[in-house]
Design a protein that fits this description.
Layout (H helix, E strand, L loop, with lengths): L3 E8 L8 E7 L6 H11 L4 E5 L8 E6 L4 E2 L3 H14 L8 E6 L2 E8 L6 E5 L4 E5 L5 H6 L11 E5 L1 E7 L3 H5 L5 H11 L4 E6 L11 E6 L12 H14 L8 E6 L7 E10 L5 E17 L4
Parallel strand pairs: 2-3, 4-6, 11-12, 13-14
Antiparallel strand pairs: 1-2, 1-16, 3-4, 4-5, 6-7, 7-8, 8-16, 9-10, 10-11, 12-13, 14-15, 15-16
């Protein structure tokens, strides 16, 4: 029976146990898409990825990403975790301090800073566009956020690799204590073809040494998840929204995100916002640390 290298990692955390779990099968060229989907369903992780030989000669590797129920073109924590696995297993080496990932969202650069467990990786998020904005453009959204004091930016539906609704709360405490109507989030996701709602708030002013600038909570009901402990793609879209609306603001060059404490995690996500590209859109990089928790081999497919 053929076997493949399999890693299980914790992504976007300074120490294992704080981030978002990920399964990575390295060197899965012999697996069919159906076999990948069955394995991802069996692991029952938020995402499981499969590292393959690239088809584009410019790429370092090719990545396929699966939830337990379907394949998706891009997600942040699977990209960062898989890049870490690629480096740790020697599947590919960085060129000029970067990897180039081939995936359903195209060719995405991944910056490599440091080495081993202290390594930080940053993926350039796909270019984002605003689909719609405003509290009342979607009745279900207005119902979900009733009674919530809004922050400086209005809610918006933003697309870039994935599609999310993002909404700013005026208060960190209000966001951390929020008990959302998950059934309504699922309705919002279904009716607007989005992953769901990602809410954020700026750090409370009386906590300047908290170690983060933004608090994020993500509810991807569109893929059957109640709350996500660390969301790379969603944070990339929040950053794009902030960069568009506050290009001279205090967060315009980047910031640090705290996510997951409400579900007993402690993810730390780093966001960097660079100068605008040729299309006039700010370039967003999302990154952090990853830790290997399990290192073994699969006995799959049967």
């Amino acid at each position: 029976m053929a076997t493949s290298r399999y890693l299980q990692l914790d992504v976007f955390c300074e120490r294992p146990g704080g981030g978002n779990p990920l399964g990575v099968v390295v060197g899965a060229d012999a697996w069919s898409g159906e076999e990948m989907q069955r394995f991802a369903h069996w692991t029952n992780l938020v995402e499981t990825t499969f590292v393959l030989t690239p088809t584009d000669p410019r790429a370092s590797y090719r990545l396929r990403i699966f939830t337990p129920t379907k394949e998706i073109p891009f997600a942040g924590h699977p990209t960062i975790g898989s890049a870490h696995a690629v480096l740790e297993t020697g599947f590919a080496l960085p060129r000029d301090g970067a990897l180039l990932q081939e995936c359903g969202a195209g060719l995405l650069p991944v910056r490599v800073e440091g080495d081993g467990e202290d390594r930080r990786l940053f993926v350039q998020a796909p270019a984002a566009r605003v689909v719609s904005e405003g509290m009342h453009v979607e009745p279900v959204l207005a119902y979900l956020l009733r009674g919530i004091s809004p922050g400086a930016l209005p809610p918006a539906c933003v697309e870039g690799g994935r599609r999310w609704w993002v909404a700013e709360f005026a208060s960190e405490a209000a966001l951390r204590g929020w008990r959302p109507d998950h059934a309504s989030i699922a309705t919002l996701a279904r009716e607007t073809d989005t992953l769901g709602l990602c809410a954020f708030a700026r750090r409370a002013g009386d906590q300047p040494d908290a170690g983060y600038d933004l608090v994020v909570r993500a509810f991807p009901a569109g893929v059957g998840i109640v709350e996500d402990p660390a969301s790379g793609a969603a944070n990339g879209l929040i950053a794009a929204w902030i960069a568009l609306r506050e290009p001279e603001g205090p967060l315009a060059c980047g910031y640090r995100v705290s996510q997951g404490r409400e579900i007993d995690r402690d993810a730390s996500i780093l966001v960097r916002i660079g100068e605008a590209d040729a299309a006039g859109k700010a370039v967003v990089w999302v990154g952090g640390q990853t830790h290997i928790v399990v290192d073994g081999r699969t006995r799959w497919p049967y």
